[in-house]
Design brief:
30% of the residues lie in helices and 27% in strands. It is α/β, with parallel strands linked by helices.
């Protein structure tokens, strides 16, 4: 299994903090956001690809020197928020560049979470199917900001909607995905047919209508560091 960490955004909503520093390299409680993620990568992952942009490529190359795990920093060659490839575009960029054709763990690089990935990986091995980690934000207004999921008793996703105006639940996709190798071709099919390359949730919204996708609800805290308010909340509540 390979892992792709998505770190090519420009995080303009966090300016000035991220004007000259990528969001995954922000410090929360004495540790970089991406380091929390790296520590949770399952042992079965034999290589990690961190995809970033041309602006922050050197930042991640410098960061990599402090990490013992096998990591490749991938430059998607974009220069600004205006020409970014988007989450799905970056996933495909890595897949094409390195001819990946095996199981994938995909994690958004601005994710901060307390739950483990080993337990979700075990669930993925049991299902041998697409799995996404879910977190209950417990607030219908907050749910309007995320990709919201409804699941059946067996864990299968029966509804998904990106940023719904009328959320059917408060279970949110966390930006942590386990995909079997055969889903890579599905991703390429989706991108070729829709040209939607920005949000990873767009693919999930399409995929669950084509084949089984399972949700794995987690209990421990998850923070989407998309704003200064969320960053401040993480500083207060993460690992508390």
């Amino acid at each position: 299994m390979k892992a792709i960490i998505l770190a090519a955004g420009y995080a303009t909503r966090l300016y000035p903090l991220t004007k000259d520093k990528p969001k995954p390299l922000l410090d929360v409680k004495g540790k970089l956001i991406i380091n929390y993620i790296i520590e949770k990568i399952p042992q079965e992952v034999d290589h990690i690809y961190v995809v970033t942009n041309n602006k922050f490529f050197s930042h991640f190359e410098e960061w990599k020197k402090s990490i013992a795990k096998p990591i490749t920093i991938v430059n998607d060659l974009t220069m600004s928020n205006d020409d970014r490839l988007g989450s799905l575009g970056d996933i495909r960029f890595v897949i094409d560049k390195f001819s990946l054709n095996e199981d994938l763990l995909i994690v958004a690089g601005d994710n901060l979470f307390e739950f483990g990935l080993e337990e979700i990986y075990s669930y993925f091995k049991e299902k041998r199917n697409n799995v996404v980690a879910l977190y209950d934000v417990q607030n219908k207004e907050l749910a309007k900001l995320y990709g919201i999921v409804s699941i059946a008793e067996n864990g299968k996703i029966v509804h998904f909607e990106e940023k719904p105006q009328e959320p059917r639940s408060t279970l949110s996709s966390t930006g942590v995905y386990f995909y079997p190798a055969q889903t890579i071709q599905k991703l390429i099919e989706f991108l070729d047919s829709t040209q939607k390359s920005d949000k990873a949730g767009d693919f999930l919204e399409w995929l669950y209508t084509k084949e089984d996708v399972f949700g794995y609800p987690v209990k421990k805290k998850w923070f989407d560091i998309g704003s200064l308010e969320q960053l401040e909340l993480a500083e207060k509540e993460f690992l508390s």
